[in-house]
Amino acid sequence: MKVLFIAKRARHQLSLEQLLAIFKSSNEWHEQHLKNGTYDCIHTFVEGGGIGIANVDSIEAAYDLLDDYPAGPVFDWEVHPLVDTGHALEKSIANIEKAIGK
């Protein structure tokens, strides 16, 4: 299943040295997880924060992925499971056709 992670800047009291270490390890983490296919994409917003679309087997795996992310504590998170658009539209069409007697 695909999951959308949205990172928003959080208020924190980290030193520049701490941020540097977190961002360096996050950069390596991004490269590894894009290369191995865990993530389809990871993008940063101009104003900070960003998004990633990940491939996971369960919601627990999504939790683990977020919990293992080096910069996790620097952000507030939104997590949204994604549904394939074709599946969603086919299901909606079938339900509407059923409702109108087609």
H/E element sequence: EHEEHEH
Beta-strand residue percentage: 25-35%
The count of strands amounts to 4
Question: Which consecutive residue ranges, at least 5 long each, have pLDDT under 50?
Answer: none
Helix content: 40-55%
| Rg, Å, rounded | 18 Å
CATH architecture, please? 2-Layer Sandwich
Give the CATH class: Alpha Beta
- Strand count, sense and closure of the main sheet? 4 strands, antiparallel
CATH topology: Alpha-Beta Plaits
Q: Spatial order of the strands in the main sheet?
A: 2-3-1-4
Which structural class best describes the helix and strand composition? alpha+beta
Shape descriptor reads: elongated
